[in-house]
Design goal:
The chain is of the alpha/beta class. It is 33% helix and 24% strand. The longest helix is centred in the N-terminal third of the chain and has 19 residues. The N and C termini lie far apart (34 Å). 29% of the residues are buried.
Length: 172
């Protein structure tokens, strides 16, 4: 599917309000929309993922083909600075939903095929050791694509720190 048809993340998503899947869709859309709208917040989150300082663009449920199946990662983040582009797929889980190894590995395969830099997972899971992913992944999948995990608590902490102590250029 061409990039022109990708859906931009929205602060107030129009998806339904029932069930875990729709909750994840709304949470993903709102988070990614704020990342692109509040430059400082987007920067503090993407910097820890290895992205350059630059313009943050975000999209939700971008469709990709992997073999004969169509997959829809929850989101996509693209940071552009000059000629350099950094792109990451995003997989989000809310509540007590856990990341699934087969889903994470499929998204790593998509990222590798597309030449993307990373896969970012977001959930309430906490890694057993800092810098380690909470899901067991085949290490061979990580040769060309980086895998990062952001717990929701870290995202909330960064948002509060940015707002209360560092400030933002546009208070709206």
């Amino acid at each position: 599917m061409s990039e022109e048809t990708w859906l931009a993340a929205r602060l107030i998503p129009t998806s339904g309000i029932n069930g875990a899947e729709e909750q994840e869709r709304r949470a993903t859309s709102a988070l990614l929309a704020v990342m692109s709208a509040v430059r400082e917040f987007g920067r503090v989150l993407t910097q820890s993922l290895g992205a350059p300082a630059g313009t943050v663009q975000t999209f939700i449920e971008v469709p990709f083909k992997l073999g004969n199946q169509q997959l829809f990662p929850d989101g996509l983040i693209r940071v552009t600075r000059g000629q350099r582009q950094w792109t990451a797929l995003v997989e989000v889980k809310t509540g007590s939903n856990a990341l699934r190894t087969e889903q994470v590995e499929a998204y790593l395969d998509i990222a590798r095929e597309q030449g993307f830099d990373a896969l970012v997972t977001i959930s309430n899971e906490i890694a057993p050791v800092p810098g380690q992913h909470p899901t067991t992944i085949d290490r061979r999948k990580l040769r060309k694509v980086a895998l990062y995990h952001l717990p929701w608590t870290e995202i909330l902490t960064q948002a509060v720190v940015q707002k209360e102590y560092r400030g933002v250029a546009d208070p709206d």
